Amino acid sequence: MHNNDPNYGREFLGGHELASYDRIKDLKVFDDTKAGVKGVVDAGALSKIPRIFVRPDDELAEEEEEFRVLKNCVNDENGSKFEIPVIDLKGVAWTKKNDVGYSQRREEIVNQIRHASETSGFFQLINHGIPKNVMDEMVKGVRRFHEQDDEAKKPMYSRDPNKSMVYFDNHFHYHKARFAEWKDSLVCRMLSPDIINPQDLPVTFRDIMLEYTKHVINLGDTLVELLSEGLGLALECTKNLDHICDYYPACPEPQLTLGSGKHSDSTFFTVLLQDDIGGLQFLHQKFWVDVKPVHGSLLVNIGDLLQVISNGRFKSAEHRVVANFVGPRISVASFFSGSKAYRKLCGPIKEVVQ
Q1: CA atoms within 13 A on the CB side of 247
Q2: pTM for the complete prediction?
């Protein structure tokens, strides 16, 4: 008789005001649909989000207190008025430091990246060498993948972290989280360290993914040079590259959930391509700083491994993505994690220990 119920198999769609709630059961029902958060939105007009997405009361209360403090500190130059550095890479390809005719421009760029890495751990890049049309097509390709028919995506649906490409909602260990995040993700392990078989990529964006990856690898190599010069040592950070292509649908109650919860990146550094909607924030001196999208720019943030091996000189800042009435928001995060030997390091490189 349940088959006549239009919500059969989607019981978790009940709003968060419902008295009865079995979190584990609702998570399983949601996961079994293999339709992701987009499937929740597509199931019908929502005025309230399902309870599995609602943040715990203590987190919401803490958020309200942070907002109250922020309102009283609008003139705090150290926190709420902080603006993310924008670094122009024009001229970066000139000769290296030890070469004859070393460029003053390159030295300026190294100093800017060093300063940003030592303070906030976040910076925007312009004139980075990746054509805007390639970036725009990459965003369109990710959107095409997520907005295709559910049946086309389901064969890739998995939570196996060892697969070269998986599609899933939330994250690999969602059942341990305090709330489900308002996003769907596609993970493509492009270098691990061998390049992925192109035929394994979705046809919806296969060509643009390969083109974009080629450019991102080149940019990653450039960033490693600049970060190495900033630290005064040689880094090996680009042997492994993963893309996480996120899709954040519009949310009817964005104040109750998050697109991505507070976290830091466990890798060396991340290069982020995002559309114009916004929502990314990073924690700086106890304040959440909004990262305003700049069309044609790329965002870089330092990861945990680089903070560790730099003996804390470079900062890995916690960040999150807030949900939004407007959507979908599209982003592509490219994670550079280095060789397996580097990932086994548990302390700073001796050259940076004072």
Answers
A1: 25
A2: 0.87
